[in-house]
Amino acid sequence: MSFNTPAGTRGTRQPSGRVMRWMNGLMARRIGRRGGGKFMGFDALVLRTIGRKSGVERTTPVGWFPAADGSRLIVASAAGAPRNPAWYYNLAANPDQVRIDVNGETIEVRAEQLHGAERAEAWQQIITAAPRFAEYQTKTDRELPVIRLVPRH
């Protein structure tokens, strides 16, 4: 499915800057060393994308949720900011060049944005497990993208 969520017109300030990059790097290394872990209270993985402009690998720690089919779900929330996080655009540009570090292994995955009933079902699962995401949604007028990460074999 297509990655087509436009930026919104309102929302909270997107976490950014030198301190946030340092924290993300620290968390990515910690998750990698431990073979998994928690990030902001969620099960965490390290998302490895290819920069859409630079072509350079980018790493971002994100919380994930199990999907019924064995894949993993992530949300491009940016804490309710009006713009999607940079990694969302990297996934959109290169959905078949994504890897994740989780549970001590690196897995090649394909990224798919969920839409319609499929998104609604996944969204309900996510906000039941982590009500914080429902709060993020109220802060912005863009629909927070839900992405499924499917292992490539």
Q: How many DSSP H or I helices?
A: 4
Helix fraction by DSSP (H/I, runs of at least 4): 25-40%
Share of β-strand residues: 25-35%
Q: Give average pLDDT, whole number.
A: 88
Estimated structural class: alpha+beta
Distance between the termini: 19 Å
Query: How would a crystallographer describe the biggest sheet?
Result: 8 strands, antiparallel
The dominant shape is globular
Radius of gyration: 14 Å
Output the helix-strand order: HEEEEEHEEHHE
Number of strands: 8
Low-confidence stretches: none
Short description:
The protein is α+β, with helices and mostly antiparallel strands and 153 residues long. The protein is 31% helix and 29% strand. Strands 1, 2, 3, 4, 5, 6, 7 and 8 form an 8-stranded antiparallel β-sheet that branches.
Question: Can you tell me about this structure?
Answer:
The protein is an alpha+beta fold. Helix content is about 30%, strand content about 30%. Strands 1, 2, 3, 4, 5, 6, 7 and 8 form an 8-stranded antiparallel sheet that branches. The protein is globular, with a radius of gyration of 14 Å. It starts with 17 loop residues before the first helix and ends with a strand.
List the defining traits of the structure above.
153 residues; alpha+beta; 8 strands; 31% helix
SSE order and pairing:
Elements: H1 18-34, E1 38-39, E2 42-50, E3 57-63, E4 65-66, E5 72-75, H2 86-93, E6 98-102, E7 105-113, H3 116-129, H4 132-139, E8 146-151
Antiparallel strand pairs: 1-2, 2-3, 2-6, 4-5, 5-8, 6-7, 7-8
